[in-house]
Amino acid sequence: MRKTLVILTLVALIALAAAAPVLAANGPNDQPFFTLVGIVTDKGPDDLDPIFVQIYHGNRFAQPEIGNILEVQVTSNTVFRRWTPSGCVPDIPANVNPGDTISIHGMVVGGVFVGDRVTVDVPLDCCTP
Predict the structure, then answer these.
(1) pLDDT number for residue 38
(2) Judging by DSSP bridges, how do beta strands 112-120 and 79-82 pair with one another?
(3) Disulfide-capable partner of 122 in 19, 40, 95, 103 (CB 3.0 to 4.6 Å)?
(4) CA-CA-CA-CA torsion for 51, 35, 74, 98, nearest 10 degrees?
(5) Nearest CA to 92 among 57, 124, 45, 125?
(6) Are the C-beta atoms of 16 and 95 separated by less than 8 Å?
(7) Is the separation of the CB atoms in 52 and 96 below 8 Å?
């Protein structure tokens, strides 16, 4: 009985070790998710124009860019929202303007930051220099 328990424990440990890379994956195709907050420095007039953001805070994928202006691509699938004290409401890309505070969540694809969720007018009290 004891030998069976030891063997089962070893099998379970081997299975966990084999599954660790899969469990550590960040997203589809193992692309890392990024999050950042900052201020919009530029945005073109078209819906799919990239957003340029001076970054004040971000997760480990955005941290090397803190203090810099980062170009974030958007796609037709990017969701735009506007922060309000009572909750976020849907918005459109045309309402993103230089000077807006912003939070972006997305994926780094081949070194390119691609936003999947953009929230405008987020309070940055804790993050501005």
Answers:
(1) 96
(2) parallel
(3) 103
(4) -20
(5) 45
(6) no
(7) no
Measured in whole angstroms, the distance separating CA 17 from the mean position of its chain's CA atoms is 28
By percentage, how much of the chain surpasses pLDDT 90?
A: 67
How far, in Å, CA of 71 to CA of 95, rounded?
18
Q: H-helix or E-strand containing 23?
A: helix 2-23
Give the CB-side neighbour count of residue 70, counting CA atoms within 13 A: 30
Query: What pLDDT is stored for residue 31 in this prediction?
Result: 73
Who contacts 105 (Cβ-Cβ below 8 Å, separation ≥6)?
33, 34, 35, 115, 116, 117
Angle at 26 between CA 78 and CA 119, to 5 degrees: 30
The DSSP H or E segment spanning 80 is strand 79-82
Write down the pTM of the prediction.
0.74
